[in-house]
Design a protein that fits this description.
- The complex is a heterodimer of chains A (119) and B (107).
- With 119 residues, chain A is mainly beta.
- Helix content of chain A is 0%, strand content 55%.
- In chain A, the strands form two sheets. In chain A, strands 2, 4, 5, 6, 9, 10 and 11 form a seven-stranded mixed β-sheet that branches. In chain A, strands 1-3-8-7 form a four-stranded antiparallel β-sheet, with no helix packed on it.
- The radius of gyration of chain A is 13 Å and the shape is globular.
- Chain B contains no helices and eleven strands.
- In chain B, strands 2, 4, 5, 6, 9, 10 and 11 form a seven-stranded mixed β-sheet that branches.
- Chain B starts with a strand and ends with a strand.
- Chain B is mainly beta and 107 residues long.
- Classes of the chains: A mainly beta (119), B mainly beta (107).
- At the A-B interface, strand 5 and strand 10 of A face strand 4, strand 5, strand 9 and strand 10 of B.
């Protein structure tokens, strides 16, 4: 069974750093493309970042230069390093598998982890 | 960037109703569109991909159609489990955008 489990969320102050983890089972993260999608409380979905099967990475403009996506093949885990956090980064963060070739959709999602940035 | 606009934002319906949600893209995206269902406190769930392909395990009362810039998600007979928020999604140039969501609530 394909499963994703996020961890690492928490409460922190503006300017702080946090690393989210997403442990995968039932498939290999290095063989697929993986993304982070976030959702501010009561709001819609916002794509954050992707790491493609080949290793290329891309970011939404709102997080570019502050967030870094990576993966550890030996642990079959996806990460999101978040630096210089802002109040507006407060959200549930979901990892998701981006399925397809040339065009991608999210066929599997984790349960989400909450990041709260507040002074 | 391609913008996705859903209508309506909220829809009130009764069990057994036929429900249609519209998603419009700011430029043509062929049939490269997906639909998701999200219930409160849960992760989104894929319903439809490539505009009209039903994801495995999704009930056949869900269907999708459209191409170019206008797409629809139809629930043929609304069931109690279908009260949720629905999002459309497109992918282009290494990024994804979602519609703002349509909340389907009990009338």
């Amino acid at each position: 069974e394909v499963q994703l489990v996020e961890s690492g969320g928490g409460l922190l102050q503006p300017g702080g750093s946090l690393r989210l983890s997403c442990a995968a089972s039932g498939f290999t993260v290095s063989s697929d493309s993986m993304s982070w999608v976030r959702q501010a409380p009561g709001k819609g979905l916002e794509w954050v970042s992707v790491i493609y099967r080949g290793g290329s990475t891309y970011y939404a403009d709102s997080v570019k230069g502050r967030f870094t996506i990576s993966r550890d093949n030996s642990k079959n885990t996806l990460y999101l390093q978040m630096n210089s956090l802002r109040v507006e980064d407060t959200a549930f963060y979901y990892c998701a598998r981006a399925w397809g070739t040339g065009w991608y959709y999210f066929d599997c999602w984790g349960q989400g982890t909450l990041v709260t940035v507040s002074s | 960037d391609i913008q996705m606009t859903q209508s309506p934002s909220t829809l009130s319906a009764s069990v057994g109703d036929r429900v249609t949600i519209t998603c419009r893209a700011s430029q043509t995206i062929s049939n490269w569109l997906a639909w998701y269902q999200q219930k409160p406190g849960k992760a989104p769930k894929l319903l439809i991909y490539k505009a009209s392909s039903l994801e495995s395990g999704v009930p056949s009362r869900f269907s999708g159609s459209g191409s170019g810039t206008e797409f629809t998600l139809t629930i043929s007979s609304l069931q109690p489990d279908d009260f949720a928020t629905y999002y459309c999604q497109q992918y282009n140039s290494y990024s994804w955008t979602f519609g703002q969501g349509t909340r389907v609530e009990i009338k």
